[in-house]
Write a structure and sequence with these properties.
Blueprint lengths: L5 E4 L4 E6 L7 E6 L2 E2 L8 E6 L4 E6 L8 E9 L2 E13 L8 E3 L15 E3 L2 E3 L5 E6 L5 E3 L2 E3 L10 E6 L1
Parallel strand pairs: 1-8
Antiparallel strand pairs: 2-6, 3-4, 3-7, 5-6, 7-8, 9-11, 10-14, 12-13, 12-15
Length: 167
């Protein structure tokens, strides 16, 4: 096996293949880190075993961050055992071509009384590459940096503001 790093993205599926020969035919077990893989969740983990030449394939569906790490396949028969390490896999929470997604962390309407306290609105967005965020006043071409800050609210700042995320 090549010693390389594999990067997977949330919700992807992946399969690992392990082949072992021996007489008698070896039994193959899988581990991730120091934990044996459990097959109780058939919706996420599948194991296929071919007895001719003993091949074992494990498939993980809808990969999650905790699925990353080093996987080990161990073949054992009555005369001994051998194991192979699958190079480390990282799971990224965002895929490389994800468009920006604005996180909704505030009410869609904010009411501020005239001449009252200062306030600010923060726009959060995720994507890959990491998006730039700024604010735009609706029906204008005026943009402001994020967070949008107001000091001593006046009539001339009344309106609808939109969070804009670009990557």
């Amino acid at each position: 096996m090549d010693a390389k790093v594999t990067v997977l993205f949330n919700q992807d599926d992946f399969s690992l293949k392990c082949q072992a020969d021996g007489n008698p035919k070896p039994h193959i077990r899988w581990r991730r880190k120091d934990t044996a893989l459990r097959w109780e969740n058939p919706l996420r983990f599948h194991r296929i075993r071919y007895d001719e030449g003993t091949t074992s394939i494990v498939t993980v569906q809808e990969v999650r961050e905790e699925d990353g790490g080093v996987y080990i396949c161990k073949a054992t028969n009555m005369f001994g055992s051998d194991q192979k390490e699958i190079p480390k896999m990282y799971v990224d929470s965002v895929s490389p071509s994800d468009p920006p997604v604005i996180e909704t962390t505030m009410d869609s309407k904010v009411t501020v009384m005239l001449h009252r306290e200062d306030f600010s609105l923060n726009c959060q967005a995720e994507g890959n590459p990491k998006p730039q965020t700024r604010w735009r006043r609706k029906d204008t071409s005026l943009y402001w940096e994020n967070p949008l800050r107001f000091h001593r609210v006046r009539y001339d700042v009344e309106g609808t503001y939109q969070c804009v995320a670009t990557s």
